[in-house]
Specification:
With 319 residues, the protein is an alpha/beta fold. The protein has helices spanning 3-21, 35-41, 58-61, 82-85, 93-104, 133-136, 147-158, 204-218, 242-245, 272-285, 306-309, and strands spanning 27-30, 47-50, 64-67, 73-77, 108-111, 121-123, 128-132, 162-166, 183-187, 190-194, 228-232, 263-268, 290-295. A three-stranded mixed β-sheet has the order 3-4-5, with helices on one face. Its EC number is 3.5.3.12. GO terms for molecular function: agmatine deiminase activity; protein-arginine deiminase activity.
């Protein structure tokens, strides 16, 4: 990453951290050589954990936190392999980050029997999991894995009872179609999704988006309900600088938001009309949460968003 691009990305990470810290305690993994820079950019209340870190995609490289039957916190490691060995050579920090994060937080951890990333699936808390075929069932992650075998893993380790499979994306050359660029739960039975109706274009990207939306509309959740789906707008690429709009990795997805306690931290991309419309839709979907919108071009030009950079950690439950 060039110096200018790194400066842009690091600045956005800092603003994202400040937005999240307004709602809940914040822990940040920081490469030791960048500790002084992190202290300048991050909220004073943030807890910094020095450790080897190669990139900022904590959702994918870090652990997934769950509560076990006793209500204790547990960390699941999904055996990150660079989104299907797209990173060659693999940085040493990436496959070891989940373990290091768990150790830093003194949380017990288990390696999963499959390769996955946290951005490839969503759960609703009532037994429903949504996941993409092009990610989990991709030979570059899990050669020969069947739907049933994957579902058995999700049921055992995530406590879900029903799995909704979306087609995903064959065009997404970075993540192979993560679900957090397609849809996100508002609450059980209710989703926000990337807009994909017939007037959104006839290129291959629009076709894939419509196929994913169609699958969501046909699906039912663990309670037998059809999903109530709100659509978020796409941006007008003509409203953005050419260098941004023409970047093939640019992923301006409003649905890639993070839900801290009492809030929503979501992106803006510089299309004033679409940014405002998306914020309004998200606020109506979450009337009891405060919306924080963070400008996000550098991170979006690396193919991800706010959800990709974050990972929630539930509190242990005393029983």
């Amino acid at each position: 990453m060039s110096g200018a691009r790194r400066h842009e990305v690091v600045g956005e990470l800092g603003r994202m951290a400040h937005a999240i810290a307004h709602f809940e305690p914040l822990h940040v993994a920081v490469a030791p050589p960048h500790l002084d820079e992190a202290r300048r950019l991050l909220p004073a209340a943030a807890t910094l954990h020095p450790m080897p870190v190669d990139d900022h995609w904590m959702r994918d490289t870090g652990p997934t936190f769950v509560l076990d039957d006793a209500g204790s916190l547990h960390a699941l490691r999904w055996n990150f392999n660079g989104w299907g060995w797209k990173i060659r050579p693999m940085p040493d920090a990436d496959p070891k980050l989940a373990q290091r994060v768990a150790l830093a937080l003194d949380v017990a951890t288990t390696s999963m029997p499959i390769v996955a990333e946290g951005g490839s699936w969503h759960v609703d808390g009532e037994g429903t999991l949504i996941v993409t075929q092009t990610s989990i069932l991709n030979p570059n992650r899990n050669p020969g894995l069947t739907r049933r075998e994957a579902e058995d893993v999700f049921r055992h380790w995530l406590g879900v009872t029903h799995v909704v499979w979306l087609p995903g994306s064959s065009l997404d050359t970075i993540t192979d179609g993560h679900v957090d660029g397609i849809a996100s739960f508002v609450r059980p039975g209710v989703l926000l999704a990337t807009g994909a109706d017939g007037n959104d274009g006839n290129d291959e990207w629009a076709r894939e988006a419509r196929e994913n939306l169609r699958a969501l509309r046909l699906a039912r959740d663990a309670c037998g309900r059809y999903f109530d789906i709100g659509l978020l707008p796409g941006i007008d690429f003509d409203a953005l600088p050419t260098a941004v709009a023409d970047d093939p990795d640019f992923a301006p997805e409003y649905v890639n938001f993070y839900l801290p306690n009492g809030g929503v931290v979501m992106a803006s991309f510089g299309d004033v009309a679409a940014d405002a419309q998306a914020r309004d839709i998200v606020q109506r979907a979450f009337p009891d949460r405060r919306i924080a919108q963070v400008p996000l071009r550098g991170i979006a030009r690396r193919g991800g968003g706010i959800h990709c950079c974050t990972q929630q950690q539930p509190a242990a439950v005393s029983r």
